[in-house]
Amino acid sequence: MKLLQEEIEKFNKDREWGYVGEIKDLLLNMNEEIGEFWHVIKWIDENKQKKMIKENIEEVDNFIGDMLFLIIKISAICEIDSEEALKKVLKEYEQRFPLKETKGNHANKLAGGIDNKKE
User: Fold this and answer.
1) How far is it, in rounded angstroms, from Cα 101 to Cα 86?
2) How many Cβ atoms sit within 10 Å of the Cβ of residue 71?
3) By the 8 A CB rule, do 81 and 75 touch?
4) Largest CB tally within 10 Å, which of 20, 41, 59, 79?
5) What is the rounded average pLDDT of the residues 66-89?
6) Cα–Cα dist 113/27, whole Å
7) Is 9:18 a contact under the CB 8 Å cutoff?
8) Which residues have a Cβ under 8 Å from the Cβ of 4 and sit 6 or more positions away?
């Protein structure tokens, strides 16, 4: 992941992109990307969603790549080590969602799920 972040930083530096002022636009771009993926699976049940994902796998693959690029670009602009940030979140999730309590369940406390997040 560190190598990818360095590659994205170089890509942006070469183009004179990657400034703090771009963050708001990158976040809006992420919303746009999410909307494009949502259009593939909206208003259909899980089985149909799986079918639509398979039928549109190139678009889904592109969505995943775009989102990762945008997330890593934002982390680089903010001088965040994306690999370390992910490791911290995984450690937090291990505590918030213990395997014994959450296996086969979801994390929405309001709907009866498990989330041990400290408020």
Assistant:
1) 22
2) 16
3) yes
4) 41
5) 95
6) 29
7) yes
8) 68, 72
Give the model's confidence band at 118: pLDDT under 50 very low, under 70 low, under 90 confident, else very high. confident
- Answer for the pair 70, 33: CB distance below 8 angstroms, yes or no: yes
pTM: 0.84
Q: Residue by residue, what is the 3-state secondary structure of 51-86? A: HHHHHCHHHHHHHHHHHHHHHHHHHHHCCCCHHHHH
pLDDT band for position 81 (cuts 50, 70, 90): very high
Q: Thinking of the domain 2-80, which architecture would CATH place it in?
A: Orthogonal Bundle (1.10)
Token code pair at residue 46: 């899980």
Tokens of 9: 């930083």
CB 2 within 8 A of CB 78: no
**Which segments of the chain belong to CATH 1.10.287.1080?**
2-80
